[in-house]
């Protein structure tokens, strides 16, 4: 039986995100097994930036490795996060920050069908939340079939109403068929399908999903982004992702080469300022 894994980044039970996943599963039918992971219940520590996971595994003894195993063994994944102050909840980002660990599992994760969903209480007050959820999918190596903002403030509101019901149907269809959704007629990054852009100057734009830059032209009033791949690619292809992982591994050698020359830079600023200890640490 195929399995759908729902990763829920809300602290609420029930949350609109989790209810949305369950409603999608209801539409998929009982031929699919549904698993839910409420990420706030999982012990996921902050990345310590030691890069050891690229060589011999993460030294942190938390739930991250097990989480990756669940993602790798699912046939499809939905990740949902609530919008908090225009971005996705920190629970999602904490998990994404551990993304260097995904490099050891690229072959299992690459191309897995995934959907990114954020919930928001106020229409169009979702800011960059969806971009964060889309990014989580790409960083996991998933095949982003589509992404949605679900509007509803109170638990339950995210699965009612014509608009939300239509999104549930679309999401179920995408998972059942493995086909990406036709999302909008708006401009898309030709490299990664991203739909969020930043203007770097009057004519240069950057795709905020893959971070590549380029320009755009107008054709019949339609904006057409022309984005070029830069040297570093995190997820445009499996080969590029592996190449980037290899480049990161090579950084260890490069750091050892420049470490001594950086020491005076660090020393010159050592001891400056007073570090304020958090009250929780100073209580004995
Ligand atoms: C701390 C906090 C910040 C929020 N910020 C926003 C916001 O910026 N924009 C918005 O539309 N909704 C905001 N909301 C509302 C939630 O996104 C909304 O209730 C949503 O349904 C929560 O989804 P969930 O039930 O899956 O957790 C906020 C809620 C909380 C608790």
From TrEMBL:
The keyword Flavoprotein applies. Residues 3-129 form the NADPH-dependent FMN reductase-like domain. This is Multimeric flavodoxin WrbA. It comes from the Bacteria. InterPro entries: Flavoprotein-like_sf, FMN_Rdtase-like_dom, ISF_SsuE-like. The keyword Plastid does not apply. GO terms for molecular function: oxidoreductase activity. Keywords: Flavoprotein, FMN.
């Amino acid at each position: 039986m195929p399995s759908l894994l729902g990763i829920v980044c809300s602290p609420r039970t029930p949350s609109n995100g989790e209810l949305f996943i369950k409603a999608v599963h209801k539409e998929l039918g009982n031929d699919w097994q549904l698993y839910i992971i409420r990420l706030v219940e999982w012990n996921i520590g902050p990345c310590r930036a030691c890069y050891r996971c690229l060589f011999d595994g993460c030294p942190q003894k938390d739930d991250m490795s097990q989480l990756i195993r669940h993602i790798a063994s699912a046939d499809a994944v939905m990740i949902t996060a609530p919008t908090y102050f225009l971005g996705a909840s920190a629970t999602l980002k904490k998990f994404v920050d551990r993304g260097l660990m995904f490099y050891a599992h690229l072959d299992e994760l690459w191309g897995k069908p995934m959907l990114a969903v954020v919930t928001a209480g106020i229409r169009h007050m979702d800011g960059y939340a969806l971009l964060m959820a889309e990014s989580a999918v790409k960083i996991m190596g998933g095949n982003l079939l589509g992404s949605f903002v679900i509007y509803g403030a109170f638990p339950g509101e995210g699965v009612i109403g014509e608009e939300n019901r239509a999104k549930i149907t679309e999401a179920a269809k995408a998972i059942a068929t493995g086909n990406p959704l036709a999302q909008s007629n708006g401009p898309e990054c030709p490299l990664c399908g991203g739909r969020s852009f930043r203007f770097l100057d009057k004519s240069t734009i950057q795709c905020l999903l893959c971070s590549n830059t380029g320009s755009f032209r107008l054709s019949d009033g339609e904006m057409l982004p022309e984005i070029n791949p830069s040297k570093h690619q995190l997820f445009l292809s499996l080969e590029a992702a592996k190449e980037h992982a290899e480049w990161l591994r090579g950084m260890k050698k490069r750091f050892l080469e420049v470490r001594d020359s950086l020491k005076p830079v660090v020393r010159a600023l050592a001891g400056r300022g007073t570090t304020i200890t958090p009250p929780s640490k100073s209580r004995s």
